[in-house]
Amino acid sequence: MTSTDQPRPRWTGWLNVVVGAVIMLATLPGRTQGLGLITEPMLADLRIDRVGYAHINLWATLLGAAICLPIGRVFDRVGLRFTTAALTALLAVVVWAMSQMGGGWLWLFVLVLATRTLGQSALSVASITIVGKSFGRNVGVAMGVYSFLLSVMFAAAFVAVGTSVRVNGWRSAWAQVAGGLIAATVIALLISESRRGTNVDEATQEADAGGLSLGAALRTPAFWVFGGATSLFGLVSSGLGLFNQAVLAERGFDQQTYVRFLAGTSIIALAGQLGSGWLTLRWSMPRLLGIAMLLYALAIATLPLLKTQAQLWVFAALFGLAGGMITVLFFAVWRQAFGARHLGRIQGAAQMLTVLASAIGPLIFAQSAARTGSYFPVLWVLAPCVLLVGIAAFRVTLPPRAG
Asked: Helix, strand, or coil here: 7?
């Protein structure tokens, strides 16, 4: 090893965990939840109807997912520090331009497409790759901590931005978000990466030298089981997330209960994230994914049957715990299964699958409600699909290089 290849101090990996979490937070204006904070006042201001905006959002999300594959290749070949900083700075410019725009659906489409492309797609891949390239076999623990930080940061950001929208208006709030992205750009320059793009020890670096290529990863059942499981989770979660209040109202629960439900599932998900990260040191990731998917299948199958507050909180426990586990496993498995050498490309492909699934989730749920008058028929179809993927997870094994 040359001096530039010498492993960095262990603390630099944990620095990357924090920086990676900040970069994922920077994706907020390109995510459904982030855009949702300004949707109503923005549409009223620009005089654009909801149906038109829904189509803008759908196509912007689908087209924005296309960058996941090429940007992963860029991260692998060029490195993460300056590319991530450049993407974050560019997103800041786009968000600021959005805060200044006049009317017109075409300009709105261009800007929403840019936020989806840079935020939900490109920077999401960067964030996960930053942490994945910084750890070897302890990547599960690191991803558990990373996921915990994300939950706390996003919760604080939702409150801060939401309050600013209410007090100062959506344009001022979005301009403030652009300012925050400039700060995130500076933080991105703190990313620590060695010449080989990792901060782990020499033995792990040598093992990663034999990491699988994207083509080889796509030929393994493990890629499709983990990618398919997380995509299915994203499809259900995005559909339920957008219409959650209406779904619970269909079972007789009021708006106040809905708010408590959201807070409760978020807290339970934190436990699932930390617990899943710790368990990756003791149990195989396929086994953990199988357990998580079985819990998730049970949760969505019982949702149409809820009648009491007690039953709702049992559902919240299953839903939050499974969601926290699936999130951590999605972040962690790619490095563990396929190595760091082509990690950006592999995670880019996986991220593209999840973005596409999340884009069509709300449409499927909306069609169910429009055709049947209820959101529940689609759950009866999706629950067996989740169950089958969970069973497949128990049977799949990671590639031999995972050890």
From this structure: coil
